[in-house]
Amino acid sequence: MQEGSNVLKPKRSTFIFTRILGWVVLFAALLLAAFVAEAEGVVGTLVPALAIAVIGGALVFKRASVAYSKERYEFGENQVRCESGGLFSHRVVDLDVRNITHVKQHLPWFRWKFFQVGNVRIESAGSASSEIILESIHDPDAV
Questions:
Q1: DSSP-derived 3-state class of residue 92
Q2: What pLDDT was estimated at residue 45?
Q3: What pLDDT was estimated at residue 83?
Q4: CA dist 36 to 41, 46, 51, 59, 132, Å?
Q5: pLDDT at 3 over 60
Q6: Binning pLDDT at 50, 70 and 90, where does residue 84 land?
Q7: SS3 (DSSP) at 24
Q8: Which residues contact 130 (CB under 8 A, 6 or more apart)?
Q9: Which of 6, 14, 85, 142 is most buried by its number of CB atoms within 10 A?
Q10: Full DSSP string of 42-90
Q11: What distance in Å separates the CA atoms of residue 46 and residue 32, rounded to the nearest whole number?
């Protein structure tokens, strides 16, 4: 990107939290079911469930951490760039400022109320894939 560009990153805690929340609920339900089965006399369910929850939790957290490290939004004079990805992928989207058609702000109630973060969607003329979503941005009004 050119000189004089501004770089933004999502707020780390909420970015990672939103990516692992569903998995935490799933692993908690798995452990609860294993505890109930163990209490009912089904032997040998607790240890495998605990192993799945621990290994799965570590993988989910690693996946979210890698996604955060790759997430980056850069604003230049003539271009907006979003770099993102996961464990096995990397994606770069460049939008020309002159082609931007819509900028939408989304403030999820829980995240806005407690963490003051929101999402900003930047849409560009052209194909449907030419859009950028800035996730878990602190003070989205300023963006």
A1: strand
A2: 85
A3: 95
A4: 9, 9, 17, 25, 45
A5: no
A6: very high
A7: helix
A8: 93, 95, 99, 123, 124
A9: 14
A10: -TT-HHHHHHHHHHHHHHHHHHHHHHHHH-EEEE-SSEEEEEEE-SS-E
A11: 9
